[in-house]
Amino acid sequence: MILSSTSEEEELEKILYQLAETIESDLYCFVYLESNDCCFIPYAFHEDIVGEININGSLSNFDRLVALTHEVGHVLDDSTSSNPVQLELNAWHLGYKYMIMESIIINSEEYFDQMYKCLSQYIEKERI
User: Fold this and answer.
1) How would residue 128 be classed by pLDDT, with cut points 50, 70 and 90?
2) Per 3-state DSSP, what percentage of the chain is helix, strand, and coil (rounded to 5)?
């Protein structure tokens, strides 16, 4: 099954909460699906937990899934790049690969459209 913006909201929500549990146990990262913002916050001085993922609870379930996928990519990215655009691009790709490994298939057209929109914002910030 390919998940998209037309998928059942209840099914997407169920998947989100199952994924949160999987991420917490496999990646040693807290996941908060009802936050006010979307971000990954690394914990530099914590031995057991690498950080926390916050996902904006006001987003649609599909958009929360896309955001969670992207933030997981930040958890997985071990690159040493200081280029924000490169770090964002890495996160988009690594998160998508992680979801595929977890048998979560997100509509690639919708996912990469969102990636393009977000990366465009980072590129604009870099030009200023």
Assistant:
1) low
2) 55, 15, 25
